[in-house]
Amino acid sequence: AQRVTQPEKLLSVFKGAPVELKCNYSYSGSPELFWYVQYSRQRLQLLLRHISRESIKGFTADLNKGETSFHLKKPFAQEEDSAMYYCALRTGRRALTFGSGTRLQVQP
Amino acid sequence: EAGVAQSPRYKIIEKRQSVAFWCNPISGHATLYWYQQILGQGPKLLIQFQNNGVVDDSQLPKDRFSAERLKGVDSTLKIQPAKLEDSAVYLCASSPRRGEETQYFGPGTRLLVL
Predict the structure, then answer these.
(1) Residues from chain A contacting residue B40 (CB–CB below 8 Å)
(2) In this predicted model, what pLDDT tens digit does every residue of A9-28 receive, in sequence order?
(3) Per-residue confidence at B54, pLDDT binned at 50, 70, 90?
(4) Is B86 helix (H, G, I), strand (E, B) or coil?
(5) Chain A residue with Cα closest to B33
(6) pLDDT tens digit sequence for A62-104
(7) In a 10 Å sphere around its CB, with 0-12 CB exposed, 13-18 middle and 19+ buried, how is residue A103 labelled?
(8) Residues B48, A95: C-beta atoms closer than 8 Å
(9) Closest approach of B40 to chain A, Cα-based (Å)
(10) Residue B23: in which H helix or E strand, if any?
(11) What DSSP character marks residue A80?
(12) Going edge to edge, which strands form the sheet with B19-24?
C-alpha cells in the first residue's frame, strides 16, 4: 500500500531564509506526486505537481525516485508563505493519498 | 467559475445520532471525492464517484457511512449512527475527469460528535 510521510509537523523560519519541507513516499511503482497548500481560512488547493517541473510562487520540488522523496523548496521564504502544506501521491487513476501535513511559519 | 460548495459548514451532534452532508461540485466535473480529515492528519479518501457510479469505496466504513451521487451531480454523505471518532472535517473535491491531476476542494464540513 502507498504511504506518504511528512516528518515535520511544524517548520518555523525567518523571512528570507531558505525553506525545505520534507516528503517521503512508499510505493513500488511510478507514482505521481503533488504538493497541496492550505492558507489560513482558505480551501486546500494544488501548489505544484512533479510532472510539470514548474516553479509556483518560488517553490520547486524534485522527485527523487532513488530516495523516494519529493521535498518542497524555496530559496527565500516570505511571510505570505505561512500555511499548511500537504504532500500527496497518486497511483494510476486513483484518488490522492495525503501525508499528515507540515505547518510552515515564516516569522518577520 | 463557482467552486465546490458544501453544506452545512459546521455540525454538532450527539453520538448515535445521524447526520448528512451535501456537496455540489464544479459544473461539468465528472469525478467527485469525499475525504475525511481528522485533526492533525491529512485528508483520507472515503469514496470516489465517476459520474453517478462508485469507483472506490474501499475505505468507507459501510456499516455506518453511506454516500450517493444521484444524477451524477450533487452528492450526499451520511453517517448513521455517528461515533465520537467520526469528529473530523469532511471535504468534498471534484475534478473534470478521473485521473485529472488537479482536484478542486470545497470548504469542508466540520463535524463534532459529543
Answers:
(1) 9, 100
(2) 999 999 999 999 999 999 87
(3) very high
(4) helix
(5) A95
(6) 888 889 999 999 999 999 999 999 999 988 777 889 999 999 9
(7) middle
(8) yes
(9) 7
(10) strand B19-24
(11) G
(12) B5-7, B19-24, B75-79, B65-68
